[in-house]
Design a protein that fits this description.
- The chain has one domain.
- It contains 12 helices and no strands.
- α2 packs across α4 and α9 packs antiparallel against α10.
- The longest helix has 27 residues.
Amino acid sequence: MNLKTASIVLVGVALAGAGAWQVVHGLHEAGIGRPKVAGLETASAAAHRAADKFLVMATGSRSSGQVPRLGDPAAGPLLDAVFDVRPVLGRPLPPFSQVDAVTDWLKSVAEVGQTYLLAGAGDATAESLSAEQAQKIDDNISAYAPEVGRFMDADLGLTRVVAAMTAAEVERPGSMNPTTNSGLEKVRSGITQTLSGAISTLTESSAADAWREARMPALVATAGPAHRLLAADQQAALKSEALQAARTTSDAKVKQSLAEFASAVAGG
């Protein structure tokens, strides 16, 4: 994995939740929104608590390179609480009044996932990344394949829901104003970066073909909601990136999935 790809992956992990969080607070400040419906807050709060406990367990992993695994009796249930996003995905699209719970869950997923990517990578950040650190991130994708796979599936799943929820709200007459427009641009940027990072990870990392193929349904499922939300230039950039990745991969299943994503994200 080269420096550019590793940076894209790290920025994607960081941005999507933060942008969506700003939108929901912008809407609340503007007095826009509907009463909360009980349901997701409990699961999202449980994921947040589990992430906090897991991060304590993973203290020092940037130096040691060792992160608790799914099979660990103490860490496994915490990882399940963070990465099992079926309470969000296995139901009709939640009302926008629930977006803060979904985005908080997304941030918990990102914080835990980043722990695996950055294990042993020292002080690496997207803005300051050495070739050695980029290689370490690539190595971690393979070394922690089960955990990184769960992370990517959860990250893409929640990103899809945030995109769909936000698109539905943006399409609602009278929902937008200068404050919320600023947050919307951050959401669009974060989702674009998340999807770009996923494409790069799935095509440029040293992960096994079966692992890449297993991630493709989650990526393809984001394309429709992303098309509804993203600006035309962002759609075009993702389409171009996916088609370029499809041309370079030798895995027929990954190639087909990338072509499907490219078509759907551009509204084809």
